[in-house]
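User: Please predict structures.

Assistant: First:
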Amino acid sequence: MMFINKITLTFITVSTFTLAQVNIEKFSRVEQNIGWEGNLSTYLSAKTGNTDIQEFGIDGRINFKNDKFYSFVIAQGDYGWNKGKEYSNNALLHLRFIHNLRSNIKPEIFGQINYNKRQLLLYRSLFGGGFRFTIFSDSVNNFVLGTAYIFEFEKIDLESSAFHPNNTKHHRWSSFVSYSNSFSQNVFLSSVIYAQPRFDELNDVRILTENHLSVKLTNRLSLSLIISLRYDSKPPDKVKDLDTNTKIGFNYNF
């Protein structure tokens, strides 16, 4: 038996580019089985005629859990062409370790590297740690809060005359609120919002929110809608402060 016992193939019909921040809450599932578990998602989109765009994206997760801790690795990538020219190119690798100190309090440490050429981000690395608190959890609802310290380094592709520096090192406070609800055996809704202000300049803040609705069509096939938003109060020169990401697809589990 392979240690990855579940693969998800996601066929996306509507998509924009992947966000540089990552919503790890949809990957850190405390109800997973003891041992190894994983999934893989991919999409391919092509438009021709008046619009000539091709996109390909992939992301996956490998989890390991025992009685004392659980950890996971997330990998994501996205590539797109517009009239034969590259317009989207990004990738991300995220590692997280969560210790089951108590049922409602869990310390964690994490690290991440990524790049996003559309956002002029040549390289970003971060590491940090904090705590997550389960406020309420049962078979239907799950409400979690989290807080953490982050140190990040970014290398940005900017001209020498740009106002924003090419290399930055910042200390950030990351916090999130996550809620999920299983309305029935066939309908699942989750929502999470992250806020990441700088400690030394609180008005320099990044916000990420993601909402996910899944409707089961069969025991293995589900219809999925994901709407994400990322806001950066002080983006680099020529980069917009607001990104949105909408995905509609089918999830197949086995």
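Second:
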Amino acid sequence: MHQQIIRTYPLSQSHGFPEPVFRQAGECGLLVEFGDALDERINNAAHAFDARLKQAQPAGIVETAPTIRSVLVRYDPLQRSPADLRSDLSDILQERDWLASPPPENRSLWRIPTLYGGACGPDLDEVADLMSMSADAAVEDHSTARQRIYMLGFAPGFCYLGPLPEVWNLPRRTEVKPEIAPGSVCVAVRQTALCSTAIPTGWHLIGRTPFRNFDIERDPAFLMDAGDEVIFEAVDQALFDRLADRAAGGAAVGSRERLP
């Protein structure tokens, strides 16, 4: 039996990161940045700090939202001044080395069936050409990469994953596609984007999955979370069609296992 080799790709070999910095984000937001790179340690820091803020509940905070490398803190300016809030956040930042934080708790590994190329992935050949490899080799490279969900955002259930090998460090497209289908799998800048709704995009569309991270009719509506890991498993048209029929009937497709 053929044994699939799953690979991971560290992004940064450097152990030096800048100290967290504050940036004002409009009239009622502060951004706490833990670095300027796509790096698991920076991402762990952002999610750990966000969890700590939800636990501490500093006065005046309306909402917090972790990103790939920062945490957005929305606050009520009628309750707290930016200076006072920065003081509270600075005290929490001094509690520990956030860049030494472990990954988020209760993580899962998802295996997501994906049909590459053709009508589902019209940009695959172009992407492969840009990387000086065949389309089959590009599919093999992408489908054997074990990728981490760094954040959810932009649209319901939309996942930003990575990192991919350096050869996938491709710029986004020069023109935006007005709409791509739910389940589309796109790539750019060493990342994969997985969408659950029909959206416009400037990323390269290489495949599609019947799996939906978000379904408003389902409980829970969201399945995956930041810190989870994903393997996009290549399937053929016949299996994709069978799984799509099952998904249309409300069945879950793909598989999930808890990570230690």
